[in-house]
Specification:
The chain is mainly α. It has 5 helices and no strands.
Length: 137
């Protein structure tokens, strides 16, 4: 359920009226969307056949972008969403973004439990690798 809601919820941001951005804010917005999209693409490519919509423990991927954070695909999606949020500088856009992040956290916890149960080495990997932000969280 969290996967479906987490995937669909950000699309409702287009219902919030857009605003005209200053050139510098537009550059930041586009930059975050591009960076987030590139991170998401890289993470998906790196996962290869291990990618799935529902949590499945097909393989423990710890290299490439997964060497920096445990959930680079979510990190990329959230970066892009934050970039999109700038186009809709309204309290509703911020609320949708924060709600989307809040929904992804339990999803990450569930995925991590599945991986920990399947791969004993996951606990050690998780202890040395940040969840979403390298060196921070």
């Amino acid at each position: 359920m969290a996967g479906a809601v987490g995937f669909l919820l950000p699309s409702f941001i287009v219902a919030v009226p857009a605003v005209e951005l200053s050139p510098s804010t537009k550059i930041v917005s586009v930059g975050l969307v591009l960076l987030g999209t590139l991170v998401s693409i890289a993470a998906t490519i790196w996962l290869g056949r291990s990618f799935s919509i529902l949590p499945q423990a097909r393989a423990l991927v710890t290299e490439g972008p997964y060497r920096l954070v445990r959930h680079p695909l979510y990190a990329g999606e959230l970066l892009a969403l934050i970039g999109i949020m700038f186009r809709y500088q309204q309290p509703w856009a911020l609320c949708l973004t924060l709600l989307s992040i809040a929904i992804q956290l339990p999803r990450m916890n569930f995925e991590e439990r599945v991986l920990e149960e399947t791969f004993p080495s996951y606990k050690e990997y998780a202890s040395r690798t940040a969840r979403l932000i390298p060196g921070v969280y």
